[in-house]
Amino acid sequence: MEYIRLNNGVKMPMLGYGVYQIEEKECEQCVSKALDVGYRLIDTAQAYLNERAVGQAIAQSAVAREDVFLTTKVWVSNAGYEKTKLSLEKSLENLQTDYLDLVLIHQALNDYYGTYQALTEYYQQGKIRAIGVSNFYSDRLVDLAEFSTVTPAINQVELHPFYQQKELRKIMTEYDITPEAWSPLAEGKNDLFNHQLLSTIGQKYHKTAAQVTLRYLTQLGVVAIPKTVHPERMIENFSIFDFQLTENELEQVAQLDSHQTLFMDHHNPEVIKELTKLGKIETMDKLQVKGDFPK
Question: Does NADP count among this protein's keywords (predicted)?
Fold first, then answer.
């Protein structure tokens, strides 16, 4: 495993296991298997409705809590200073822990300034080791970074070979904010798993197109959190640190960037309207994990 130092000095694994859209009954088993494989970064969210399963898997694992880098995210309906604090206490209870390694603001919607104030307070109290954001594009990221006492450590966004967020990553570099990729394998879109270039590069190293993709991202300094419920894929995704892409190969993969999202455009007012509808659902258990839910 390779690690990256966040802007506050905290060490974070470059590769983790994401549990987006894994229902609670299956999630505990999946996280347990991921920990057995060797994953030490587990990424969940309040809106995924599987925090309890993640917490149970970690509690029952032979892996010590301090060796697991545990991330959750505050959902839009819990935005604002007071509601965020209440939601954090619930997340701590669900995850069976007295501290969190990383907490992100899930979407740049509602009172995210109040949310960040609460995260900052918990960070300063030592209840959270690092704080950051998710799905923040350059304008709102700069706004938050400029007017906060604690610069976000992470910005988790859609990032894969077909949408590489190069301009946003430049801004993140300026503020020493580490990029983290959700859907790093693009959920197989654009036939990623059989992509000619990625597969050809992989043949040289006896690796798959998926492994080449994950190695590409980690070599760029991007934390990746692929999700799968298949143990053999967990092992495959984890086996990426025994080879290194050349500069020429990195340049070739860089050319795959279409500069367009494959999932949702956060600059589109209609997309924001749909997200705000979900953000106005006050009871978390009414949210649906399946379907086109925001990551």
Answer: yes
> Is position 135 within any domain?
yes
Annotated catalytic, 99?
no
234: enclosing H helix or E strand: helix 231-238
292 in a structural domain: no
**Residue 128 — φ and ψ, nearest 5°?**
-130, 135
Q: How does pLDDT run across 200-215, given as a tens digit for each residue?
A: 999 999 999 999 999 9
Residue 286 falls inside a structural domain: no
Q: Tell me the three state secondary structure of residue 135.
A: coil
Chain segment 157-193, per-residue pLDDT in tens: 999 999 999 999 999 999 999 999 999 999 999 999 9
Q: How many domains does the chain have?
A: 1
CA distance 147 to 229: 40
Q: Is 5 among the domain residues? A: no
The one catalytic residue among 17, 20, 39, 48: 48
The residues facing 40 across adjacent strands are none
Q: Which amino acid is at 192?
A: L
- How far apart, in whole angstroms, are the C-alpha atoms of residue 14 and residue 221? 8
pTM for the predicted model, two decimal places? 0.94
- Contact (Cβ atoms closer than 8 angstroms) between residue 72 and residue 44: yes
